[in-house]
Design goal:
The chain is elongated. Helices cover about 25% and strands about 30% of the residues. The protein has two domains: about 140 residues, Gcn5-related N-acetyltransferase (GNAT) (Aminopeptidase); about 160 residues, Gcn5-related N-acetyltransferase (GNAT) (Aminopeptidase). It contains eight helices and twelve strands. Strands 1, 2, 3, 4, 5, 6, 7, 8, 9, 10, 11 and 12 form a twelve-stranded mixed β-sheet that branches. With about 325 residues, the chain is an alpha+beta fold.
């Protein structure tokens, strides 16, 4: 539970004398461990690499000291090669993947330092904008707005209860299979599929939602279930999911633009639901953007229901 709350505007706009800085590998690891113990608030969007692996990366910055408490921020470009290759290609957007503030530190001034450090790191890397997926509690929102970020969308979570769906067909109420979808072959994703899956992903998603090759390789290797859809020998769609705490979460589902509108997405959704049911989950969740009306229509028709509250998507353009 948080031990502090966001203060009023006077604290958020108070002058700040300290600056952020990078730390060497050993010192960075030490501060990360300290923040893990004492962070009063954390934003954690570390989807594919743990924070410690980013030690020494250009996008990791800290402010504070051992006596007054530390704070830190991690910026990761969409086109990252991972911790060993922070930026694999110039330009493009980046995500703010992590923020942590020691509960002894002055929150408003530290957050100002961190957000401006993220801005500076992104500009130095030639990046075109910063994106951040906020927590539902809204503790970061006023600070983001003060620094020029704007809410541009929301991410919603949808859930399907398998207990409620047991009386349905095994894969669920996913509607008829179209003649075009009957030609599609579904099989487990293999390591050699990474390149083809990245191609599908880049066509199905726009920035900042697409995955770089290194991120996709991590996604496929860490997934409890990873499946691809093939039309002949061509990968035209894929999906990944994880199983934890008795539930399943669908991380990704994408169809190549050349195969959209043919029932491939519905076939993938039915397939991954069946695969998760085989693993004994009692509920399945997934996320999509509020603006993605077509995806919401598909998920609702398959028995998914929206959970509250949504998460705000913030953007700071830099170019």
């Amino acid at each position: 539970m948080a031990r502090w709350v966001a203060r009023g505007r006077s604290e958020r706009t108070a002058p700040v004398a300290e600056a952020s800085r990078a730390l060497d590998l050993d010192r960075s690891l030490s501060v990360i461990r300290a923040l893990d113990r004492r962070a009063g608030r954390q934003l954690d969007r570390l989807d594919h690499w743990p924070l410690a692996q980013w030690s020494g990366a250009p996008g990791l910055r800290f402010a504070g000291n051992d006596d007054a408490g530390w704070a830190g921020v991690l910026v990761v470009p969409v086109d990252t090669g991972g911790p060993g290759e922070w930026l694999s290609r110039g330009g493009g957007p980046a995500w703010v993947r992590w923020i942590g503030v020691d509960d002894r530190a002055p929150v408003g001034p530290r957050l100002r330092v961190l957000l401006r450090a993220a801005d500076r790191v992104a500009r130095e890397g030639g990046l075109t904008g910063l994106w951040l997926l906020c927590d539902s509690g809204g503790w970061l929102d006023p600070y983001l707005l003060d620094e020029g970020y704007r809410a541009v969308d929301e991410v919603i979570t949808l859930e399907r209860s398998l207990r409620r769906a047991r009386s349905e067909a095994f894969a669920g109420n996913f509607g008829p299979i179209t003649p075009e979808a009957k030609r599609i072959c579904l099989r487990p994703a293999l390591f050699q599929d990474v390149g083809a899956v990245v191609t599908v992903d880049s066509r199905a998603f726009q920035d900042p939602w697409r995955y770089a090759p290194a991120t996709m390789a991590r996604e496929l290797s860490a997934a409890s279930v990873a499946r691809v859809a093939l039309d002949g020998d061509r990968v035209v769609g894929y999906t990944t999911a994880v199983v934890r705490d008795g539930g399943g979460h669908i991380n990704r589902i994408a169809v190549d633009t050349v195969a959209q509108g043919r029932g491939v997405g519905r076939a993938l959704l039915a397939d991954i639901n069946g695969q998760l049911a085989l693993r004994g989950v009692t509920r399945i969740t997934l996320n999509t953007q509020r603006s993605n009306v077509a995806s919401q229509r598909l998920y609702r028709s398959a028995g998914f229901r929206v959970l509250d509250p949504p998460l705000k998507v913030y953007h700071l353009p830099l170019a």
